[in-house]
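ok so for the tutorial part 2 we go from a plain amino acid sequence to predicted structure tokens. step 1 is just haveing the sequence, like this:
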Amino acid sequence: MIFHIDGNSFYASCERVFRPDLAHTPIAILSNNDARIIAVNAECKSLGFKRRDFYFEVRDAMQKKGVVVFSSNFTLYADMSARINLIYNRLCPDVEVYSIDESFLYFPDWKDTDYLEIGHEIKNTVRQETGIPVSVGIAPNKTLAKLCNKLAKKGDGVCCWDKINQDKELENYPVEDIWGVGKKKSAFLKRHGINTALSLKHYPLWKAKKHMTITGFNTVQELNGIRIIDKIEDEPRQVVFVSRSFQKPVYELDDIIPSLCEYTQEAVNRMRSESLSCKKVSVYLMTNPLAEGEQYQNQMSAELPHLSAFLPEIQSTANGLLRKIYRPNYKYRKVMIGLTGLDFDEDPQLDLFDAGYNRGRELEPLMQAFDKINNRYGRGTIKLGSGIRKVNGAVSNEPWKSKKEFLSPCYTTNIRDIPKAY
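step 2 — the prediction. this is what the tokens look like for a chain of 422 residues:
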């Protein structure tokens, strides 16, 4: 049996764990630079606000309706996600993390087992130990488990496929809400009279394969109770990209380099977290295409002489690329770092003729200590020097920094932000 577990309004729920005064308050989470809404809880959604709204357009209306706004705090959300998945792994023999707020749990097909009771136990344990509310969908395959999860949100938080009137629920379930059916496919299906999950269940398989590709073919079979979509095994990612828009236009190279250093460290951290190394480094620099004035964008790549996960080497390469593509007198809006050619570096041998590779190998314990400190005490606790300019001994204004006016503390990862109890 497959359990699909989803955190309810996950980002907002993470914020609410440390702000019990917001128990019934509408909450919205903003993107980088506080530009758009990326998440809303049920109370906020009921007021008419939705994801992808531009914050500046709805700011006044939100204030009038008492919506509490937070800048995205992904350090907090990722840590809460990790804590929840530790609970899943404790209670289930096989767990697949699908996203930051969703996981699939695979239980054996035990005879005479009350899976509904197991679902309630998981839901209550997560709520008790983390404060995060979750919904649980239980079914023989992933598509139906996702469907049951949505039904669970309308009920007591747990829904089991074997305990409901299946065809009735499928008849009331919109085809566009089915996992794996996107806008294009749902529009096509509706033109052919397929409006519900029940009608898609009875859609001929040969038509599904012809008009909906193999994904639609699999979806129709899963709606009929057949398990087709298997567990996704972990595969090494092919690329890591990190970029953000600057809070305001940046002109000077000395102001862009610190931002590139921060993004490179984040990219290398993501790569190292999966035990990968890169062969190629790319840097992109661009102005704002929507702003007035002369536009400029450029990119340059460099291939490393060997696979590397050594931050100083990758950082030095990225800084060199940036200096080559930088042009003065432009209002830059974004810089991006890309690491490609990712693979596992499983060769333990040093290279007689490559001092750079040997240095990275010899200093790998230092990088591991670097990773552990940042993972334990929060991203950016220690970092490479980036040549940040100082004025009278203080760090100068950093215009590239993301705008986060409503950022909450990193309660779980930064020792300075640990809540105080009185």
